[in-house]
Each structure stands twice: as structure tokens, then as C-alpha cells.
Design goal:
seven-stranded mixed sheet, alpha/beta, FAD/NAD(P)-binding domain, binds flavin-adenine dinucleotide, five-stranded parallel sheet
Length: 357
């Protein structure tokens, strides 16, 4: 028998943290509400590079969910969702329990794209989920070896700069230009930092597959080694495509500006797991969806009209350089230095503080 709720929040992503905070501080909608999360804490990805660089402690980068849920009068169910049936408005968790609800809200983030692999000589470590990544990273750190990173976005650059001094050799492979889509000046600054830290950068080098201990770009062998860290962009969780929800060609849930699924209006989806024109797969978009989602969930439970979310045109990017500094990208301008590092720290710690009630 399935346990029934008025609303199930699935995943403690950035937007759901904002929703819980708002309900704790302002007003909670009526009804029985629960949050489903694989673990008792939510990690804040913006601080992960600082954690790897030894600038933060693990507990600085986490939000404790129990306190937040208690304050918002929301039940916390610690279990990862394994399948979702859109038709039945029901989820099944790893231990076989099922939960159903009148309204569902998904904020489950995404996994990491992985190239095809033949043979097992190369160990792969995906940067998400963070718990698994950090355990794997600790094992690697016990015996440092040469390593490659796959990815050309902000996360890959920050990770490379955070760990460059902790491994004997580091190579970074990206399919196109490094930091594509960000200001050209930022790319040049990032390349300068990577060069200084002796990271070998290969741009325009898409990795097609892994064969034993070798990375291939098409037919060209480009790197030999046994450790590959994956920061190669978001991959949708497979259970979303099997849920019966309308998804885009990559398996992310297609949503309307109200953040409702196009095919199942009683389900909302936000952050990296959702597909909405103009909203990029980045924490800052998920954070901004929070207030609109909080409003719309409340309105939905009360039978009132919903609001539309409009993705912001410009976002501030601050990339940690692993030495306490950061690079800034804002409206086509770039800058860098220790001042921006302190600013990033202030904003990151502010995010954690806001959600510790
Ligand atoms: C190293 C690194 C640094 C980054 N730095 C930044 C940055 O500085 N700024 C920025 O904007 N973006 C940054 N990003 C990108 C950012 O992490 C994501 O875009 C952002 O976390 C997406 O937010 P979200 O709310 O969609 O999901 P997430 O923050 O990923 O949260 C998803 C939640 O869902 C939970 N979940 C997952 N699967 C299940 C399941 N089956 N059942 C239940 N719950 C589940 C997870 O435990 C997690 O709590 C970075 C990414 C990385 C890898």
C-alpha cells in the first residue's frame, strides 16, 4: 500500500531548499507534505572545489535537512527514488516502499555524461552524486596517480585548479573551447591559471570512448592512464525517461513557464532535471526558480492561479581558482583575483547560512 500525501518534494536541490526555507519563515501551504532525499544533507556544489582544495570542511558545504524540514513542518523521508509513475502520481524508493501524492515536485539534479568504456583498466569517478564522488576521491588521494579530467565547463575548470597540486600529472580534455559561452577574457584567464598549475589542456578534443587504459578521440589515442574524473555535463537520470513524463531528447522533463510538466500538470520539475528554454543547467537558475516554485505549489494546493518563471538573461559567474582567488564573468566582462575569491566565499557561506534554521 502506498502512503499518500498532498505534496511530495522529490530531491533536496537548490529550489526545494528555497521552498522549505520560505515555508519555515513565512507561510506553509495546507496539507501533508514530505521531502524525499537519498541522504540527511544537501551538498552545495559551489563549495565543492574549495573542499577539494582544502579551503572548506565538509560540514561547511552541507545543509542539514532534518532541521529545515522540521521548521517547515515537512516530513523527511531518507530514501532515493528509483522509479516514478506519472500516471499514478507515485514513486518507488530503493527499499520497495511507494509514496503517492496529489502534487509532485522534482528537483533531483542530474548525473554526469559518461563515454563508452571497454575494459576495466581505467577507473572512472563522476563528480556527482557528491557522496560517492568524495568517497572515491579520498581513496584516490591515499595513493595519488596521474589523472585526466573530462569537461570544459566551469565545474571542470574549478576542479582542475582545486586538485592540480594534489596529483603528479593532470590533463583536461574538452570537446570544444574551454568555458564556451562565457566571456572570451574569462577563458584566457582560466587558461593562464591552468598553465601556471601545469595542467595540460586539450581543447576541441571530444573523447569518444575509453579502451582499457586509453582515451580515444575518434580513432586517435589521446591519453593513457588509469584515473579519469568526469565533469562532462549533465545526464538525465534514466528513471525520468521511463516515468511516462514528456521529456526532451536528452531525457530531461519538459516544463512550461509555470514549471509544470507539459504532459502532467500535477507535477512540477525544476533545476537541472527540467528542460525549459532559456534556463541553463546551473545552480543559479535552480535558486531563482525557488520563489516561483514556492508560490506555485502553494497556489496549486489552494486551487489558485499560478505564476510564470522567466529565466534571467545575465548571470554572475565566479570560478574558484584553487588558491583562494576567483575569476568573475559578468555581462561580457571578466576579472580575477583574491578579492573575487573572498566575495565568492561570502556568497557561498551566505547560501549555507540562509538554509540553516
Ligand atoms: C564541482 C561543481 C561546481 C559547481 N559550481 C557551481 C557554481 O558555482 N554555480 C552554479 O550555478 N552552478 C555550479 N555547478 C552546477 C550545479 O551543481 C548544478 O547545476 C546545480 O546543483 C543544479 O541544481 P539542482 O537544484 O537542479 O540539483 P542539485 O543541487 O544537484 O540537487 C539535486 C538533489 O536531488 C537529490 N537526488 C538525486 N537523485 C535523487 C533520487 N533518485 N531521489 C531523491 N533525491 C535525489 C540529490 O541528493 C540532491 O540533493 C557546479 C557543479 C559542479 C559539479
Amino acid at each position: 500500500m502506498s502512503t499518500h500525501y498532498d505534496l511530495l518534494l522529490i530531491g533536496a536541490g537548490h529550489a526545494h531548499l528555497g521552498v522549505l526555507r520560505r515555508w519555515a519563515l513565512v507561510e506553509r501551504p495546507p496539507g501533508r507534505i514530505a521531502l524525499l532525499s537519498p541522504g540527511p544533507v544537501a551538498w552545495y556544489s559551489g563549495m565543492l572545489p574549495g573542499l577539494l582544495a582544502g579551503r572548506h570542511r565538509a560540514e561547511d558545504c552541507q545543509v542539514e535537512l532534518l532541521a529545515l524540514c522540521r521548521a517547515a513542518k515537512v516530513e523527511l523521508i531518507i530514501a532515493p527514488v528509483e522509479s516514478l509513475s506519472a500516471a499514478q502520481q507515485q514513486v518507488q524508493v530503493a527499499d520497495g516502499r511507494t509514496f503517492s501524492a496529489r502534487w509532485l515536485s522534482l528537483n533531483v539534479g542530474a548525473g554526469i555524461r559518461t563515454p563508452a568504456q571497454q575494459g576495466s583498466a581505467m577507473q572512472l569517478l563522476a563528480v556527482k552524486p557528491f557522496d560517492d564522488f568524495l568517497q572515491g576521491w579520498q581513496r584516490w588521494q591515499a595513493q595519488p596517480e596521474p589523472m585526466a579530467i573530462l569537461g570544459g565547463g566551469a565545474a571542470a575548470v574549478e576542479l582542475a585548479l582545486a586538485v592540480a597540486d594534489k596529483v603528479p600529472q593532470l590533463a583536461l580534455f574538452c570537446a570544444g573551447h574551454l568555458l564556451d559561452g562565457l566571456t572570451p577574457g574569462l577563458r584566457l584567464r582560466a587558461l593562464g591559471h591552468l598553465r601556471q598549475r601545469r595542467v595540460q589542456v586539450r581543447e576541441d578534443c571530444p573523447i569518444s570512448h575509453i579502451n582499457d587504459d586509453c582515451l580515444f578521440s575518434g580513432t586517435e589515442p589521446v591519453w593513457r592512464g588509469t584515473r579519469l574524473l568526469l565533469a562532462s555535463g549533465a545526464a538525465a537520470w534514466p528513471w525520468l525517461a521511463h516515468s511516462g513524463l514528456g521529456c526532451d531528447e536528452q531525457g530531461f522533463v519538459l516544463v512550461a513557464p509555470t514549471l509544470q510538466s507539459y504532459t502532467q500538470p500535477s507535477l512540477f520539475a525544476v533545476g537541472d532535471c527540467a528542460s525549459l528554454p532559456g534556463a541553463r543547467k546551473s545552480g543559479v537558475y535552480a535558486v531563482r526558480q525557488g520563489p516561483v516554485l514556492a508560490f506555485n505549489l502553494q497556489a496549486a494546493l489552494r486551487g489558485q492561479p499560478l505564476k510564470a518563471y522567466r529565466p534571467q538573461r545575465h548571470t554572475l559567474a565566479l570560478l574558484a581558482t584553487g588558491d583562494g582567488g576567483a575569476l568573475l564573468d559578468w555581462h561580457g566582462h571578466s576579472a580575477g583575483g583574491q578579492f573575487y575569491g573572498r566575495w565568492k566565499d561570502f556568497l557561498d557561506r551566505g547560501f549555507i547560512r540562509r538554509h540553516r534554521l
